[in-house]
């Protein structure tokens, strides 16, 4: 299994395959507009701009499971992220990241890259998963890991070639 085996919904709720990102380094993030971590959008956008020409892509997934910090609909969320943080990376349909209704992609990511002490559940907004060019999750970052703090990991992943 790889992330390419999954289909997700875009902000317009159209089903899209992650196959379209084959060969790219991905950073998959659950986001929220009314969270103390929301300013991370700024540094995520900086990383997107810096590494997009090297095959890097951020994929954002709004989630309202943590203290209802993402209450808006997809249009509201996208407008907020683009107007406030100039976000250019795709923001997808709202999802759940935990529980029986969790997005299957996030179940896969959590299984492949566990959290502290082997925990699988996403603990809060802005948990981040780095995926290599082969679609394999290689790192998990906590909500408190600021995006620029792991820029070296992104740069290293972008330098790696596709194995398949």
TrEMBL record:
Signal peptide: none
GO MF annotation terms: peroxidase activity
Active site per UniProt: 35
Entries under PROSITE patterns matching the protein: GLUTATHIONE_PEROXID_1 (PS00460), GLUTATHIONE_PEROXID_2 (PS00763), GLUTATHIONE_PEROXID_3 (PS51355)
InterPro entries noted in UniProt: Glutathione_peroxidase, GPX_AS, GPX_CS, Thioredoxin-like_sf
Keywords: Oxidoreductase, Peroxidase
A single GO BP: response to oxidative stress
Gene3D superfamilies according to UniProt: Glutaredoxin (3.40.30.10)
Entry similarity comment: Belongs to the glutathione peroxidase family.
Protein name in the entry: Glutathione peroxidase
Originating species: Acrasis kona
């Amino acid at each position: 299994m790889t992330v390419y085996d999954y289909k997700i919904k875009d902000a317009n709720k159209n089903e899209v395959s992650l196959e379209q990102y084959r060969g790219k380094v991905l950073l998959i993030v659950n986001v929220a507009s009314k969270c103390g971590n929301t300013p991370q959008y700024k540094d995520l956008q900086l990383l997107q701009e810096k590494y997009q020409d090297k095959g890097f892509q951020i994929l954002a997934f709004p989630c309202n499971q943590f203290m209802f910090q993402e209450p808006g609909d997809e249009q509201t969320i996208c407008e907020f992220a683009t107007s406030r943080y100039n976000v250019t990376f795709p923001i997808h349909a709202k999802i759940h990241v935990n529980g029986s209704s969790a997005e299957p992609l996030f179940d896969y990511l959590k299984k492949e890259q566990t959290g502290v002490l082997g925990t699988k559940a996403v603990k809060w907004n802005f948990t981040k998963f780095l995926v290599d060019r082969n679609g394999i999750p290689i790192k998990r970052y906590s909500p408190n890991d600021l995006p620029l703090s792991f820029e070296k990991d992104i740069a290293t992943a972008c330098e790696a070639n596709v194995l398949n």
